[in-house]
Amino acid sequence: MRLELKEKVDKLLEFKKVEKLKEILEIKKVHITIISIVLVLGCIGIYDALNNKVTIAFDNKKENVRTFSKTVKELLEEKNIKLGKNDKVLPGLNSKLKDNTQIVVRRAFEVDLVLNGQTRKIITTENTVKDLLEKENITISKLDKLNFPLDHKLRKNDQIKLVRVQEQIVTQVEEVPFGVETVYDDNLDVGKFVQVQKGSNGQKEVTYKIVLNDGKEVSKTLIDEKVILDPTNEIVKKGTKNFIVTSRGDVRRFKKTLDVTATAYTAGFESTGKKPGDSGYGKTYMGTTVRPGVIAVDPKVIPLGSKVYIPYIGKTCTAEDIGGAIKGNKIDIYMSELSKAKKFGRKKLKVYILE
């Protein structure tokens, strides 16, 4: 009986040991699982900590990458992105990479900048016209003219033209031209003028707004003026008398009067270089026979065929001849005798061109 009881007790103790062992094993299993999870999570955390997510924008494209590179330079080398001499990278090559870093590679390109009329070529990586001007330390006034908006995105071979505009207010003194007043006088021969009063210019103070483009004047606008000295008009008498009473008492109307230099000539060799029997001897330019009452004239002044009254000799003559020395306000009066022609000499005369 005791033996059986002992066996039962032993079996019970053995069962409890097994159950205890199982319990211990279950606890250890849980611990191992937890430790495994912790280790995995730790590795993932370490991986994420060392592996950054970065965006690279270059050559008109954008890439999202994960990298263990520490700097921008290392990442570009990793991705085999080559940089030209003047290319620009933002942030800088030595910048440390962090998660969500955004890298921009700007390729250098050439543009023309026209400033003060001079063109120069610029290698740039700037994004806009404004950026370029700031980079070149170029300031713009409100008046200046730019052929592109400041926010224009720069492209290769763009020509940026900046015109410097200046406005100037200039005050100066200018002349005011005098006028001419004409007074008609029927006691003065037609075609004659007599100055009664000499004219003199006045002065005015004028103010202009002048606009300059690159130093060259492009507009000039009058904005104010005031007379500081009035001009004095010239006064001239104009003859309206168009008739003359000849030495015979005849009343003749005339077109105009002329002040001329008068000489005399004959048909002989001394005056014409021709002798009786020579071709054209004794003939006028109009083909008529030379005779008293014929005069030689310059046709540009007195038309051929005109009737000309000469008060000095009291005769009305006809312009039928010309002469090599008769130019301008000159006439040559025909006389039949050489002695009379020589005696006449050279005189200043007033003549009338009759209607």
TrEMBL record:
<protein>
    <recommendedName>
        <fullName>G5 domain-containing protein</fullName>
    </recommendedName>
</protein>
<dbReference type="GO" id="GO:0019867">
    <property type="term" value="C:outer membrane"/>
</dbReference>
<feature type="transmembrane region" description="Helical">
    <location>
        <begin position="30"/>
        <end position="50"/>
    </location>
</feature>
<dbReference type="Pfam" id="PF07501">
    <property type="entry name" value="G5"/>
</dbReference>
<keyword id="KW-1133">Transmembrane helix</keyword>
<dbReference type="GO" id="GO:0009254">
    <property type="term" value="P:peptidoglycan turnover"/>
</dbReference>
<keyword id="KW-0472">Membrane</keyword>
<dbReference type="Pfam" id="PF06725">
    <property type="entry name" value="3D"/>
</dbReference>
<dbReference type="Pfam" id="PF03990">
    <property type="entry name" value="DUF348"/>
</dbReference>
<dbReference type="InterPro" id="IPR051933">
    <property type="entry name" value="Resuscitation_pf_RpfB"/>
</dbReference>
<keyword id="KW-0732">Signal</keyword>
<feature type="domain" description="G5">
    <location>
        <begin position="162"/>
        <end position="242"/>
    </location>
</feature>
<dbReference type="GO" id="GO:0004553">
    <property type="term" value="F:hydrolase activity, hydrolyzing O-glycosyl compounds"/>
</dbReference>
<keyword id="KW-0812">Transmembrane</keyword>
<dbReference type="InterPro" id="IPR007137">
    <property type="entry name" value="DUF348"/>
</dbReference>
<dbReference type="InterPro" id="IPR036908">
    <property type="entry name" value="RlpA-like_sf"/>
</dbReference>
<dbReference type="InterPro" id="IPR059180">
    <property type="entry name" value="3D_YorM"/>
</dbReference>
<dbReference type="InterPro" id="IPR011098">
    <property type="entry name" value="G5_dom"/>
</dbReference>
<dbReference type="InterPro" id="IPR010611">
    <property type="entry name" value="3D_dom"/>
</dbReference>
